[in-house]
Design a protein that fits this description.
Mean pLDDT: 95
Largest sheet: 5 strands, parallel
Helix content: 10-25%
Number of strands: 26
Low-confidence stretches: 286-295
Strand order of the largest sheet: 3-2-1-7-19
Oligomer: single chain
Length: 416
């Protein structure tokens, strides 16, 4: 069997390599990563790592011994510069090249950057990799006032972590509410109140005009004219998929590297997975199988679970298996003492049910469309979350009264 080369020493890259071996791939596997580290966990970077509760030594996804056992060769600290599809070779930044029979692109994404005056001042930070998190954690030890630009998951998790370290924090968000694209108003309002209770100042419907300072950050000026004093800025403006290699070698691109439900790109010898991949997700488009006019549209899902699930599919594909992607997407976020767990989607729901008490900080919001459960957001109710994952996958049409009734365990609503 020909060799597999994986560009991107990421969650998706690691899972893809292990899945290929688990599915009987017998050829050589080489994983190429531009960071000097072993593939590592990224979610703790904006959570426990920033709060000094997680040490860098606990972040690697697998030990060197595990990679060796699986006959996976890691080449870290080197980047892929060019893909020659005709010759089936990858040119690397150290001047070498490597041939492939199968190629996997798990190149991830990079932070969207500020495009305003002062964006290049010292102490303006972005959070994507370990080096970013180390820089923010180090700077937080000296900063007193932090402006977090962006009220998405990364921005809010960073705000919560920095507030717990004693920094004064102001969150600036251009939308009318927090996480506007990701969650319904109920969840946005709950998180807004949680941050406000912790002393975080919120500026919604606000845009940054410029960052002020002489050499390093001193303040952020909003387009409204308000000036927010800050020793440090953390910008969480979303990410841009790393598709340059794929585009340069002629692969189809549409808000990511386009793949089918088997993780195959427009080149049958190349698969892709992770934050760089755009694929048909039956759960986020329409209502499961064939349930909506947009059911075949490709989407790009930025989550560890999605990266792992699609990578497992890609690993099977390079091994000659045909296993379509059909996993229900789920996500999570930790902010203060609240664990928000999301599954499926709330987009397009026509009925919502709240289980538990929102004021208590322990509840689940469940979303239905045409009677079918399509999503759920749980705060500090992990049992509800796990049950909802199964119910959504089974496309149940539960009685809303039963969903609301805490005397009825959600798992009992699974069809026989």
């Amino acid at each position: 069997m020909s060799d597999l080369v994986i560009i991107g020493a990421s969650y998706a890259g690691t899972q893809l390599a292990l899945a290929a071996r688990a599915n009987g791939f017998a050829g050589g596997i080489t994983m190429i990563g531009d960071e000097p580290h072993l593939p590592y966990q990224r979610p703790p970077l904006s959570k426990g790592f920033l709060r000094n509760e997680v040490d860098a030594s606990s972040l690697p996804l697998q030990s060197p011994e595990r990679f060796a056992e699986e006959r996976i060769v890691l080449r870290t600290g080197v980047a892929a510069h060019r893909i020659d599809r005709e010759a089936c070779r990858v040119e690397l930044s150290d001047g070498s090249d490597i041939g492939y029979g199968h190629l996997a692109l798990t190149t991830g994404a990079r932070c969207r950057t500020l495009a305003c005056e002062g964006a290049g001042l010292g102490n303006v930070h972005y959070l994507r990799g370990l080096a970013d998190a180390c820089a923010i954690r180090d700077a937080a030890g000296r900063a007193r006032r932090v402006a977090v630009i962006g009220g998405g998951f990364i921005g809010l998790e960073a705000a919560a972590a920095l507030r717990s370290l004693g920094c004064e924090v102001t969150v600036v968000e251009m939308q009318e509410r927090l996480l506007q694209r990701a969650v319904p108003p109920l969840i946005s309002t709950f998180l807004m109140q949680a941050h406000a209770q912790q002393g975080v100042r919120l500026r919604l419907s606000s845009r940054v005009g410029r960052v002020l300072g002489q050499g390093t950050v001193e303040a952020v000026e909003l387009e409204s004219g308000e000036v927010i004093a800050a020793d440090m800025v953390v910008a969480g403006l979303g990410v841009v998929p790393n598709v340059e290699l794929a585009r340069a070698c002629g692969l189809a691109i549409d808000n990511g590297i386009v793949v089918d439900r088997y993780a195959r790109t427009s080149d049958p010898d190349i698969v892709a997975a992770g934050d760089c991949a755009s694929y048909p997700n039956p759960w986020l488009n329409g209502l499961g199988e064939g349930g909506g006019a947009d059911a075949g549209r490709c989407v790009r899902v930025e989550s560890i679970q999605s990266a792992n699930d699609l990578a497992r599919v890609a690993g099977a594909t390079v091994s000659g298996q045909t296993v379509p992607y059909d996993a229900v997407p789920w996500f999570w976020s930790d902010q203060y003492g609240y664990k928000l767990q999301m599954v499926g989607t709330s987009n397009g729901h026509d009925h919502a049910v709240v289980r538990g008490n929102v004021e208590s900080g322990r509840f689940t919001a469940l979303y239905l469309r045409a009677g079918t459960l399509i999503g759920a957001d749980s705060v500090n109710r992990p049992v509800d979350h796990m049950a909802a994952r199964r119910l959504i996958a089974a496309r149940v049409q539960p009685d809303p009264a039963a969903l609301r009734d805490e005397a009825v365990a959600l798992k009992t609503l699974m069809p026989a």
